[in-house]
Amino acid sequence: MTTTTTPPAPAVAGAPPRPSARRLRLVIGSTRHRLLVLGSWLVVALLVLAATGLEPYRLGQLSGAVVIATAIVGLNVVTGYTGLLSVGHSALLGVGAYTTGVLVVQLNLLPLITVPAAVLTGALVGAFVGLPSIRIRGLYLAMVTLALAVAFPEVLRALPEVTGGNSGLSIPLRFLAPPAWTGLTLADRPLWTFLLCLSALLVSMLLVWCVLRSRLGRDMRAVRDHEAAAESFGVHVARTKILAFTISGGITGLAGAMLAMYVGALSPAGSFTILKAIELLSGLVLGGVATQLGPLVGAAVVVYLPVLLADVVQGQGSGVLFGALLIVIVFVMPEGVVGRLNKLWRQRVDVVPRGMPAPVADPP
Amino acid sequence: MSAGYGAADVVHRISLDVAEGEIAVVLGANGAGKTTTLRAISGVLARSGVVQFDGRPMPTRPEDTVRVGLSMVPQGRGTLTELTVLENLLVGAAVRPRHEADADVEKWCGFFPVLGERREQKAGSLSGGEQQMLAIARALMARPRLVLLDEPSLGLAPIVVQRVFAALADINATDGTSMLIVEQNADLALRLARSAHVLEAGRLVASGAAADFLDDDRVRSAYLGGR
Ligand SMILES: Nc1ncnc2c1ncn2[C@@H]1O[C@H](COP(=O)(O)OP(=O)(O)O)[C@@H](O)[C@H]1O
Ligand SMILES: [Mg+2]
């Protein structure tokens, strides 16, 4: 019972090796791995190139989907990776959109210049929403986000001098034209807007990618997995939640600024009610919670599926069919589309860092 | 020290010492207040009274208690299920500089080879025993001077419990890490520990050398249900 060997001795016999069926081994940094990564980026570049050739109406629709995807990327930071349900992201989207809208309409600033301000206000309001997590947790925090979603349109209505009240704001077209240095004309506006929205999406995804690899990202996921345990390991739970809400708010504010430029007209009843928050949540769940590509798939589903269904079914029926289809998807793939694909991928492929020994049961 | 939830105290004016390098055990039935005691010491729960560590007042927030050298193996192991084994270990080392953490990962993956083999796997895929090893290794990643262990034998097969306790004995002997273990599994815990305390309905009702508790059948049957 009381072994006193000086060098640490293995105290535990290893469990039997896991069954390893015929799996593909992919070593990070190997030629095969590099080719795969390169190939994926090539496909992405080709898709973007193909998209720029779409007719203006289709391109506009795609910009809308890209904006929704960006907002879902933001939502994913709190709800996906930190495990905090937010039904208030419609308001964060609105804060960003109205920051751009108000600054352009009231102060005649160029929309592009207002983007950092939209990110900042989104982040500030996000931090403010996260602040109660110092004292409260669980569903109570979700209630705070719900209150924000409900209050936001009313706040807009209560400040008509700034926000245009019920009738909202409309950004004059001259502000939305591509700037001269791009060489694009007013007729190219859909392309310009699309490229802006796409850049915003890529920057947001890159930011989340970096956060996930940082200590903060690890803490966020630790809080999500087991908050009480994480706290006892010394993870600063409240600070982690507030930072997650701040980053999430900044990204969603950025999406809002893009929305303002893409739509050109903002109103309280438009895109910033709780219905939008639910749309974002549905997209996140469908695409895959806590996956990096899930927001893209989710946005595509919530933006395009209703359009496709409207072609098939007339009137109210399409809404019902949309709801029914969402339930079916969630039932068949509870981990979301990308979550399911990741799972299938992991079942077939081992991605291992260079220098890891091959599994014993699987001789090379 | 006293502690509880809201206005009502669950643990009443208990007093105990853990000497440097010692393993102490607190025995008690379900609901006696063992978990509450550990959580209060680590700062997760509010407490009243005095808790001293190395002659200084113990900080009251968990981030700070970890920093001064206290770490916790929580009840139910506290596995961060969606994080990899490696990430679980690094969470434990949040207060250490990165190069020390990397060295300690190698050390504990060597000590618990199962963890080394599974370091890139999600911790939730480990067996109960493996998760308990992970919980212990995670706690040690902070390079603590005192580890609080909340029922490390809970839900494990007897043979696995023996391995876990053997590992604890080994770590204590090699590194001199002090441990405060709360347990319902009296026999094994008393064999491992030097001093023992019995907690009953939130009050300490007996304290002494662990060996005395093992030998004294009356003490055992009175406090430990005859185990
Ligand atoms: N979160 C909580 N809120 C209120 N009471 C609690 C909570 N956790 C435990 N208790 C109560 O405190 C008492 C001691 O619990 P605990 O410390 O978990 O006991 P043990 O770990 O010895 O089984 C029990 O009566 C239990 O009902
Ligand atoms: Mg307990």
From TrEMBL, chain A:
InterPro entries in UniProt: ABC_transp_permease (IPR001851), LivM-like (IPR043428)
Its keywords, alphabetically, are: Cell membrane, Membrane, Transmembrane, Transmembrane helix
Q: Which GO terms describe its cellular component?
A: plasma membrane
Where it sits in the cell: the answer is: Cell membrane
Q: List the molecular function annotations (GO) for this entry.
A: branched-chain amino acid transmembrane transporter activity
Indicate where this protein is primarily found: membrane
Report whether Amino-acid biosynthesis shows up as a keyword of the record.
Answer: no
Bilayer-crossing regions: 35-54, 60-78, 90-107, 113-131, 138-156, 191-212, 242-263, 296-313, 319-338
The protein's topology relative to the membrane is: Multi-pass membrane protein
Q: What is this protein called?
A: Branched-chain amino acid ABC transporter permease
Q: What organism is listed for this UniProt entry?
A: Goekera deserti
Automatic annotation (TrEMBL), chain B:
Q: Which SMART domains match?
A: AAA
Q: Which keywords does this Swiss-Prot/TrEMBL entry list? A: Amino-acid transport, ATP-binding, Nucleotide-binding, Transport
Q: Which residues form a coiled coil?
A: none
PROSITE patterns, A to Z: ABC_TRANSPORTER_1 (PS00211), ABC_TRANSPORTER_2 (PS50893)
Q: Which GO terms describe its molecular function?
A: ATP binding; ATP hydrolysis activity; branched-chain amino acid transmembrane transporter activity
Q: Which Pfam families does the protein's record reference?
A: ABC_tran
Q: Which domain of life does the UniProt lineage start with?
A: Bacteria
What's the protein here called?
ABC transporter ATP-binding protein
In the record, what lineage is assigned to the organism producing the protein?
Bacteria, Bacillati, Actinomycetota, Actinomycetes, Geodermatophilales
